[in-house]
Write a structure and sequence with these properties.
The protein has about 450 residues and is mainly α. Helices cover about 70% and strands about 0% of the residues. α7 packs across α8 and α10 runs antiparallel to α11. The longest helix is centred in the middle third of the chain and has 35 residues. It starts with 7 loop residues before the first helix and ends in a 12-residue tail after the last helix. About 40% of the residues are buried.
Amino acid sequence: MASAAPPRESRFAKVNSDIIGALWGPDWRYTSMMTLLGAVIGWAFFALLWQIKFGMGTAGINNPVMWGVYITNFVFWVGIAHSGTLISAILYLLRSGWRTTINRAAEAMTIFAVMTAGLFPLIHLGRIWYFYFLAPYPNQRMLWPNFRSPLIWDFFAISTYFAISLLFWYAGLIPDMAAVRDRLGKMSGRMARLKQKIYGALSLGWQGSDSQWKHYRRAYLYLAAIATPLVLSVHSVVSWDFAMALVPGWHSTVFAPYFVAGAIFSGIAMVITLAVPFRWALGLEDYINEYHFDNMGKLLLLTSLIVGYAYLTEFFMAWISGDGIEQSSFLYRAFGDYTVPFFIMMMCNAVIPLLCFSRKVRRSIAAMFVISILVNLGMWYERFVIIVTGLAHEFEPYAWGVYKPTWVELSITAGSFAWFLFWFMLFAKTLPAISITEVKESIAEGIWSPGDKKEDA
């Protein structure tokens, strides 16, 4: 005779214990990783100071390739930021139950990816101390930014997306921070009391009354509805940085949907990449399991097919246009000086993700982890190929050139990944990394419970 299911109250208590128990108390692995990341960030900062002292000539940027790795990184990190809004806002509006344990990490990833992306337009300026001229504000010299400049468009896009994403992330944290506050109230010691005061202030006096829940649900729904159009608008604006130019390979109406699909594709891959070590390090295997990787794999496959179709569309449009310069640009992209990055891009983004057609692959956490890393690599190379090959092989043969990144650019690129991971790991040990509220709702509604792998899903 099957044993009776444990009472709902005990399952709720276990959720609190598991998720809140993962906070604080970093072990030697966590400390070692944070030390390593700090060292990489320090080296990247040294490379930045070197560039500031000796000028932009220390970077590989040249004429005609005036955009290089820095803008590649900018587009890459803005793309990474899109999955948080997709998983949290859009899937919340669609009432997808499987998002409940990965949405919080995806939202945090959005915040930190935008923080990382925003650094690269400043680094690319060279004279970073003049960054304030990007902001449209009146000044005593009556100077205004050029609103036709893509840098100004990016300023509006990044600041708007960051503000809405931060509000949406924080709104979802309020009930969970109140749960942490209440748990700390049962502990003794000066540090516990200090933490209780901090979490109590961040929870904004949350008591879980009917009135508070009513207003919370309404505010969360409105923020989700506001954030959803940003998935389409923000990366469309970034794509217009390229599409509004006359550069062969850039001047295309397909760029907006192409960039949006690519952003979601790379963002989902980054969620998978982070979720595997994240669930292991915090002991949350019951909360993020094969069921969630299966669904993320389906989403990864869908966006891969869209991106692969966009690749074919680009080459088809160049062929059917009859424009010799456009055709030459795309032939150079595939068979010119950057053939290796091009084929890495095609294999990692359009071929390898096809393995996700297999249910066994989607439910294999190790396989999904490897695929996600390859997709991240391929999407970085995609941005590199688009930017560099377009500029290196424009209209006039005498202006063609080859771009190679220097140690300064590569060091700052490595530092950007360390910067992103540093903030993400700091978040994982200070705030509930999984939404306690939404997991309890899933249990109460019978949608999903911790440890439930939904083998028949």
